[in-house]
Specification:
alpha+beta; Dna Ligase, domain 1; 5-stranded antiparallel β-sheet; about 35% strand
């Protein structure tokens, strides 16, 4: 049983991004589904779907009767972009024209074979407010992550929203996590 579902969700997404997985399963709660909707709206993940988990057996104390329960999970499809790995070659030091053109041809052949790197759109996920230490901020004290390039997800009286939306509505709340 997990006490802090938000930090569990962030850790699962972070670990899946590190090993370059396409999908990750997280537990379904109303809070996590709203955070996943914000991540999709901001373009940090491709999509998500709600999957029901069956065939989970509960064993009662007196008998070995198994009951099926419908637990839900959220399957998140992570978003990656391809980054081509290239190196800088100094061609000005070669004085021979034939050798320089041969090296240019070799570089053109190698550029396709150097490989692609899958780089995650999510660089970092950080939990701000924890169960042991809650952190609140009003609309003037909301932090800006990387000068507005990242987002802070916060829980307000109007629901869960990003820092930009909270500044626009002039409300504050509990800072849940930061994503960039």
């Amino acid at each position: 049983m997990v006490n802090d579902t938000i930090s569990d969700m962030l850790t699962r997404i972070r670990n899946a991004c590190l090993v370059k997985k396409r999908t990750v399963l997280i537990t379904y709660t109303r809070m996590t589904i709203q955070i996943v909707e914000i991540l999709e709206k901001e373009g940090l993940i491709n999509s998500y779907e709600i999957v029901s988990k069956k065939n989970l057996k509960k064993i009662t104390q007196n008998t070995d009767v198994s009951q099926e329960s419908n637990l839900k999970e959220i399957q998140i499809f992570l978003k990656y972009y391809t980054k081509y790995k290239t190196q800088y070659y100094k061609l000005t030091t070669i004085k021979d024209k034939k050798a320089q053109s041969a090296l240019k041809n070799q570089i053109k052949l190698l550029q396709g074979k150097q490989g692609r790197q899958k780089t995650s759109c999510i660089t970092n996920l950080r939990r701000i407010s924890k169960p042991g230490l809650r952190i609140y901020a009003n609309n003037k004290e909301l932090p800006r992550i990387l000068g507005g390039a990242g987002i802070v997800i916060l829980s307000t009286s109007k629901g869960i929203m990003t820092d930009r939306e909270a500044r626009f509505r002039r409300i504050g709340g509990e800072l849940l996590c930061s994503v960039w």
